[in-house]
Amino acid sequence: MSEGRLRLPAMTIALLYLFVSVVALVTMLGDPYQMDFVAYWAAAQLALDGNPAGAYALDVHRAVELSAIQLRGALPFSYPPCFLLLLAPFGLLAYPVAAFDWVLLSFAAYGAALRRWAPAMPWLALSFPPLLVNVVTGQAGLLVASLFIGAMALLPKRPLLAGLLLGLLVVKPQLGLVVPLVLIAGREWRAIAGAAAAASGLVLLSLLVFGWSPWSAWLGNAGLIAAIASEGLAGWHRMASVYGALRLVGVPSLPAWLVHVVVALAAAAAAGWAWYRKAPLEARAGALAAATALASPYLFVYDTLLLVVPFLWLVGRGRHLALLGLAWAILFLALVQVAGWSGGPNLMPLAPIILLGLILWETRQPRDLSASAKETEPLPRAAALG
Questions:
Q1: CB atoms inside a 10 Å sphere around CB 274
Q2: Which residues contact 19 (CB under 8 A, 6 or more apart)?
Q3: How far is 163 from 176, CA to CA, in rounded Å?
């Protein structure tokens, strides 16, 4: 079995990631360094101090960040105010302790979601390159992946609860662009109701707790967020979108936008078609994850952790291992580029394109169940990567 052959290298890479992660977190407690999480922590501090709108005032927010560490560059807080509800408890802690706890808890949530979704593939899941980026930077990719994977696992039997988890993705709205489309295409009406209830409820709760001022400030910063995506203020090599990859190689803005939109629409249509045809659950979840990674121009390597969903299913099918290895290698190259080497082309968008193409190939027949008799449920516990 191909899964058995992959177990040893996957375990080796996962243990290497674990070593790097432990070193990073222990270092954080003893000698705090700059993580992206400091932007979350500063926003939480301001919210607890009664100034949630200050999270979107660049000078005010930066002053709080500087109270914890010396900054290299700018780390603005770009998330909607409803995210402050989840972050507020971490503002009660000192920065290094808050960062340690954030990573530990979000990693635990990711592990719990994967245990329900793909319990027999832990090493393969833990060797996925974007995982390490999220642990070392303290980004929200682990949280987003946990919500997404948990929702997909619950969808067959508890669609309303699955929708509630999907609705929480409103904290990162650019990653929810394709979700309504596929839920409508799949006639998942209870999940739609749950998602709408969770998203609107979280927004309303943030309005009750914080008022309108932070929302007004967040909307006022829309130009900055758009500039990060359209002008590459964070570096084109760090962006995982089709638009960012094209801009890195010198394609002008307008043609790059056109290509991005065409790819995004094609990916969304492919995912919608998979859901409309009621393809196996893992295939539908994988298609949605890949289309999500191709839809938003505001996407970074840590957001691509969602691609673990199609990756695991396709490896479990036991075919196309060379292409799957290429997709993994592309994301590992992105990890190296983010770590400091900014040379070479940005190949990140090729990973979701490869994965989505393989999903379409694997589900080209209405009900191709040759690889598993239970593909309408999460990955079986008897798979070989345990």
A1: 25
A2: none
A3: 12
Q: Given a cut of 50, is residue 373 above it in pLDDT?
A: no
370 has a pLDDT exceeding 80: no
Asked if 241 and 267 count as a contact pair (C-beta separation under 8 A), the reply is: no
Encoding tokens for residue 139? 């980004």
Nearest Cα residue to 328 out of 346, 354, 302: 354
Report how far residue 269's alpha carbon sits from residue 48's, in angstroms, rounded to the nearest whole number.
Answer: 43
Over residues 215-254, the pLDDT tens digits come to 999 999 888 888 888 888 788 888 999 999 999 999 999 9
Using alpha carbons, select from 366, 334, 376, 370 the residue that is nearest to residue 352.
334
Contact 274, 284 (CB under 8 A): yes
How is residue 378 written in tokens? Answer: 């999460």
Identify the residue whose tokens are 């932070």.
214
Q: What is the pLDDT of residues 250-291, one digit of tens each?
A: 999 999 999 999 999 999 999 999 999 999 999 999 999 999
Say whether pTM exceeds 0.85.
yes
| Burial class of residue 248, CB neighbours in 10 A (0-12, 13-18, 19+) | buried
Cβ atoms of 337 and 143 within 8 Å: the answer is no
Tokens of 329: 């290698």
User: Where exactly are the structural domains of the chain?
Assistant: 2-221+231-362
Helix ranges restricted to H, the chain: 2-30, 37-48, 58-66, 82-87, 95-117, 122-126, 129-137, 141-154, 159-167, 179-185, 189-210, 213-220, 222-231, 242-248, 253-276, 281-295, 308-317, 321-339, 350-362
Write the pLDDT tens digit of every residue in 59-91.
999 999 999 998 887 889 999 999 999 999 999
Residues 6+ apart with CB under 8 A from 234: 228, 300
- What is the spatial distance between Cα 218 and Cα 223, in angstroms, rounded to a whole number? 10
Q: Helices 141-154 and 308-317, interaxial angle, to 10°?
A: 50
Residue 206 corresponds to which tokens in the numbers above?
């943030």
pLDDT digits (tens, 9 = 90+) for 168-195: 999 999 999 999 999 999 999 999 999 9
Q: Return d(Cα 282, Cα 378) in angstroms, integer.
A: 7
- Token pair recorded at residue 71: 């900054």
Could you tell me if 116 and 378 are in contact, meaning their C-beta atoms sit under 8 angstroms apart?
yes
